[in-house]
């Protein structure tokens, strides 16, 4: 069960090698989280991540999970919840893709969409139902400011995140009053392996900063978290710019 500050004792991470997810797990373990399930494709990286978290004192299990195989989600994730209550699910898997290539190769674009949206919808609904059955818990969904308004530079990724964001907000409304808390996290440019080699955007942040924001959001029982917080104002302005003006911006 969560403590008086809303922090979890048990955590299920969907996207077990995500740098943001692992930074969040480390921060929560330092507070009070004791049991962690890292769900992802079996790999040395997943096992290494589990080993690092065990070194911090947590009881860590790895779970073979594939976002692109929705038919397996109910069985795979159901086994985790059958082990006992899960206080928090962190949905953190995602694929950035390569915009130029993905425009040329629709199959690659579809992979981005299926990972970021279809896979997340499937896993999110499975976890939401299990959280609702146990009567408590948080579902934290890693969205992105890219979903606020599609940009020429990454509209395939941005559109998939826009769908995920809308889904998570609607799911939060559907679960209101059930004891299940849904929190949408909208980071800006995060310096990770996924963004290595890309030009750094203004207001760039780190996995550790996102983890800090997630913890604060859990304590406050927030529904939406921006990282950094100033992006809320920036995106409010960009969202309402006339399309002709927005199109000419170097974004």
Q: Major sheet: size, sense and barrel closure? A: 7 strands, parallel
Look at the helices and sheets and give the structural class: alpha/beta
Secondary structure: number of strands: 7
- The general outline is globular
Distance between the termini: 43 Å
Rg estimate, integer Å: 17 Å
Q: What fraction of residues sit in β-strands?
A: 15-25%
Largest beta sheet: strand ordering: 3-2-1-4-5-6-7
Q: What's the overall average pLDDT, rounded?
A: 93
Oligomer: single chain
Helix percentage: 40-55%
List unreliable stretches of 5+ residues. none
Order of helices and strands: EHEHEHEHHEHEHEHH
Tally of helical runs: 9
GO molecular function, one term: oxidoreductase activity
EC number: 1.1.1.333
Family: Belongs to the short-chain dehydrogenases/reductases (SDR) family.
Protein name: Decaprenylphospho-beta-D-erythro-pentofuranosid-2-ulose 2-reductase
Write the layout of secondary structure elements.
Layout: E1 10-14, H1 19-31, E2 35-40, H2 44-54, E3 59-64, H3 73-82, E4 88-91, H4 99-104, H5 106-134, E5 137-142, H6 155-175, E6 180-187, H7 207-220, E7 224-227, H8 231-239, H9 243-247
Helix pairs in contact: 1-7, 3-5, 5-6
Family: Belongs to the short-chain dehydrogenases/reductases (SDR) family.
Enzyme class: oxidoreductase
Pfam families: adh_short
Summarize the structure in words.
The protein is of the alpha/beta class. It is built from nine helices and seven strands. The chain has helices spanning 19-31, 44-54, 73-82, 99-104, 106-134, 155-175, 207-220, 231-239, 243-247, and strands at 10-14, 35-40, 59-64, 88-91, 137-142, 180-187, 224-227. Strands 3-2-1-4-5-6-7 form a seven-stranded parallel sheet, sandwiched between helices. Helix 1 (19-31) links the parallel strand 1 and strand 2. Helix 1 (19-31) crosses helix 7 (207-220), helix 3 (73-82) runs parallel beside helix 5 (106-134) and helix 5 packs parallel to helix 6. The protein is globular. 42% of the residues are buried. The model has no long low-confidence stretch (mean pLDDT 93). Keywords: Oxidoreductase. Pfam families: adh_short (PF00106). This is Decaprenylphospho-beta-D-erythro-pentofuranosid-2-ulose 2-reductase. InterPro entries: NAD(P)-bd_dom_sf, Sc_DH/Rdtase_CS, SDR_fam.
